[in-house]
Amino acid sequence: MAGERCDLNKDEAKILKPSSSSSPPPLPSQPSLLAPQEFPAPERPERLQAPVAPISCLLKPEEERRSSPPIKRCLICRKRVGLTCFRCRCGDLFCNLHRYSDAHDCSFDYKAAGREQIAKNNPLIRAAKIIKI
């Protein structure tokens, strides 16, 4: 760990130095700007890094990966729903009894969604005004 030290000040100094191959910058016309300005490099404390675990330690064994998916349960009564689960527009799973929005106090606004869908499917068409003589 002591050998893995990152000296940020040296890296920043390399970045801040102008390259010699580039053309010289134009001189400013004001005499106060002709004096070279030195900006002190900000001091940064050394950051301690936690030891990095090898990737093989983070991967689960094949037996754990092959385990069955989580059991689907109703959010209200916690009853197992299996294949007959109903996913509401609010994003939760419910059984046959709690699938309706009034049974589980749904947070999804069906009225607003219906209004938007109708407005989208039936745009308002205005005919040109007829000039009467």
UniProtKB/TrEMBL annotation:
Protein function: May be involved in environmental stress response.
UniProt keyword terms in alphabetical order: Metal-binding, Stress response, Zinc, Zinc-finger
Pfam family, one: zf-AN1
Species assigned in the record: Zingiber officinale
Superkingdom as given in the UniProt entry: Eukaryota
Protein name, UniProt field: AN1-type domain-containing protein
Stretches assigned to the AN1-type domain: 68-114
Cited SMART domains: ZnF_AN1
